[in-house]
Design brief:
The protein contains six helices and six strands. The chain has 165 residues and is α+β, with helices and mostly antiparallel strands.
Length: 165
């Protein structure tokens, strides 16, 4: 799935499944963005964003550790947002950091805007078996991140209904 509308969702969805096996597409994502960055820091940010998106999709509060990681990454930009408990947003500013810091900050800022904005209610994990992706629900009946997951889920349901006949 191509999240397309959210840098944070794109990063979160660099964890995906192929034939039921977890895959990590972070290196390809970083290469595609031209990011000369510390993979460890991006992995930490991705894991925090995934944790926060999962919490938002469940209507739960944000885990403080994940929120702190996103806020710290966001603070590397000349101007950044911080996610508060409510969820709300507070804007702060300081001198600019390195190129990698600014790239991390861009993802973190997008995550904060997504998690504290109007689109928060549309965040969903894909309901297809073994899919690890998140998406923004575009219509009331949408359950899957994309057509391929929807098709796989329908085929699996059909097979389960008819396998003993």
């Amino acid at each position: 799935m191509d999240a397309g509308t959210s840098l944070a969702l794109e990063l979160a969805n660099t964890i995906y499944a192929v034939r039921g096996r977890r895959q990590d597409g972070l290196d390809a994502w970083l290469d595609q963005r031209g990011a000369d960055a510390d993979r460890t820091r991006f992995t930490e940010l991705r894991d925090a964003v995934r944790t926060l998106i999962q919490a938002a999709s469940e209507g739960a509060g944000y885990p403080p550790e994940a929120r702190a990681i996103v806020n710290q990454a966001s603070a590397a930009a000349p101007s950044w947002l911080e996610l508060t408990d409510e969820p709300g947003i507070e804007e702060k500013s300081a001198p600019a950091g390195s190129a990698a810091d600014i790239e991390l900050a861009a993802v973190a800022r997008d995550a904060i805007a997504l998690l504290a904005g109007e689109r928060r209610e549309a965040l969903r994990p894909c309901q297809a078996p073994a899919c690890l992706q998140f998406f923004l629900k575009a219509h009331p009946r949408q359950e899957f991140c994309g057509p391929a997951c929807g098709n796989r889920a329908r085929v699996a349901r059909h097979y389960a209904r008819h396998k003993d006949q």
